[in-house]
Amino acid sequence: MAGVIDASTRVGAVHLTIADLARSLRYYQSNLGLAVHRQDDRTAWLGAGGPDLLVLEADAAARPVHGTTGLYHFALLVPSRPDLARALRRLAATNTVMHGAADHGVSESLYLADPDGNGIEIYRDRPRDQWPFPGGRLRMVTEPLDFESLLAEAGPNEDRAAMPAGTTMGHVHLRVANLADAERFYVDVIGFELMQRFGPAALFVAAGGYHHHLGMNTWESNGAAAPPPGSIGLRHFEVLLPDAGAVRDVLKRIERAALPTERVADGLLLRDPSGNGLLLRTPH
Hints:
Layout: E1 10-18, H1 21-30, E2 35-39, E3 43-47, E4 52-58, E5 70-77, H2 81-93, E6 98-103, E7 107-113, E8 119-125, H3 147-151, E9 168-175, H4 179-189, E10 193-197, E11 202-206, E12 214-217, E13 233-240, H5 244-256, E14 262-263, E15 268-271, E16 277-281
Parallel strand pairs: 1-4, 5-8, 9-12, 13-16
Antiparallel strand pairs: 1-13, 2-3, 3-4, 5-9, 6-7, 7-8, 10-11, 11-12, 14-15, 15-16
């Protein structure tokens, strides 16, 4: 099934089920600096003043699950290194528990989780001409983050600086049950390009030569089932294609693969072999 997804494809909003909307909004506004674009009794749409980046849907009966497929983390991409430094300073000022930090060669990243345990990355990219390509192949690494150097770029002491305008959903990292099945779905059918394998249990795919729009791993989910209905976690994430023609190209490959889809108001909803939902649509 030859075919490569349009080079300008990117990731859009991530839709999550959470247990307590008020609690989640306090966290995302206070600790991360996201703005509420709009909300109703059960749902809130958040971002940095531009397109929605996160959609939270509350279900008081929802419960966390472990040992399933689903979300590993979603990744907010800030425009610059000083922006990442200010995000780090805000996390420190709000006593936010961090789960890690790393220099990946292509980017610098901070890792944490929301009150429901949904994984979050905040990162900044290095310019593409600085990405490591030993032997002509992209090589992402996991090295210690230089906190001292990073914080030196934070600028004036604005501990509660908002998430900057221009922040986007840079990528989504998924827990999958079988890496080969995931690769066939996301590369052969959807059309992303394979960018890197990371050991025997993780790989990264992208459009347009980006380091990755999607990561997937089986580190804790090899052979796992999808979460049961009503679980906390990923509902679906959006894949934004530039126009209707680009959507049709992907749809042709989906139809050849005889994969079930659902037409919804915003686009075309389908699930990968691990049950992770993705919504194909064009930008509003």
